[in-house]
């Protein structure tokens, strides 16, 4: 079908030419002005109809939400707010939308309401802008890695190992869940399951990506990951997309350099390529801010905030230094934190992370060298024997956006760690094999894609930056 995109038409191409556009009606005013949107841009194109020339029954079907096709001439617009418009010569209805029942009316709907209409919410300006930004960020992620010598590996979705040992896994099984075959001792007999063993949906592609880094050098995986997070926060989903680069011969410093450069690069990409959507989202946020008490308002408009990130260095702070800051800070002393930080070794909660970023350093922070006890088994033990070469990147308004580390490359240390944590060596024989054959210093990190989209769009809830959010008790769509 030979149609024009509204984005192209608004850029001034095709002036005074015959054009054809298909899209969804946003509004239809005075039986004359149709605001049409086809998803290619946040802006609508105005289509001017001469109702005397068009069939009345046809015009009756033009209502908010209807899918239509117009043909006509692109002319300069005399009206305010748009540079060009289409003088409609003919109009076709692809599909009408009953105005009585169409849920997306030309008014402001709450985000909560729109979550219940996840199949239609992309028709709103906010969600179309967010989803175009999501797509642009995804492209920027691949572009960054492809231009920097990384290979894309597709790690498996169904795995036989629970990488983190965190227990938040979704099991995959073909056994009858009500009446599974049992062994003599009463436990479930997984030898009769499809794979002949217990399997689950992946919580991270890291371990498999590591194996590929130890042959291709620099790799990344970017796919869905699944965690049965039993909490309802605005930062957690049960199904989210994770970007996980893994690099041979990179130590923790090189890993931190890469992560910082990567984030700055993808945010620069959207600053350059998503101007209209960013301006729309920024304005939306400013309107929302006006309804909040002054103390809760964000100090920086969205675009300025993104530029601040791309133009300034992230602050690198060791866990030990951070704990000192937290122990002595006012909110901790005045018991304003829900969890009071008393001693070295405590895991940071998001209130602490956000304090460090938003109040103390006032910039993104990379925390490194965490206590071994609160981090995963595969992280490289430091010479002090109690900290590991881990790093988390903390962002304003978000908290943790990246978790990464230098990986333990020494077989004996790794095995000892696994033993202490009761991780079955037999389950991970392939992982420990890497330390037997050509082992080397290597590192990587995981960045939750939705947290990146959340930050770049200024949205407040992770449910609003993924098309169909999966959270406890919610898989309607
Ligand atoms: P958090 O402390 O926020 O629960 P985590 O430490 O459990 O995160 P990691 O295992 O380090 O998460 O995963 C790497 C990254 O994946 C995190 O830094 C975050 O950006 C993202 N992430 C983790 N869990 C989720 C989730 N449930 N939903 C969305 N993103 C997530
Ligand atoms: Mg978690
Ligand atoms: Mg964490
Ligand atoms: Mg983490």
UniProtKB/TrEMBL annotation:
GO cellular component, one term: cytoplasm
Keyword tags: Aminoacyl-tRNA synthetase, ATP-binding, Cytoplasm, Ligase, Nucleotide-binding, Protein biosynthesis
E.C. number: 6.1.1.22
Biological process annotations from GO: asparaginyl-tRNA aminoacylation
Signal peptide span: none
Reactions performed catalytically: tRNA(Asn) + L-asparagine + ATP = L-asparaginyl-tRNA(Asn) + AMP + diphosphate + H(+)
Main location: cytoplasm
Name of the protein described by the UniProt record: Asparagine--tRNA ligase
The organism of origin for this protein: Cellulophaga lytica (strain ATCC 23178 / DSM 7489 / JCM 8516 / NBRC 14961 / NCIMB 1423 / VKM B-1433 / Cy l20)
Name of the gene: asnS
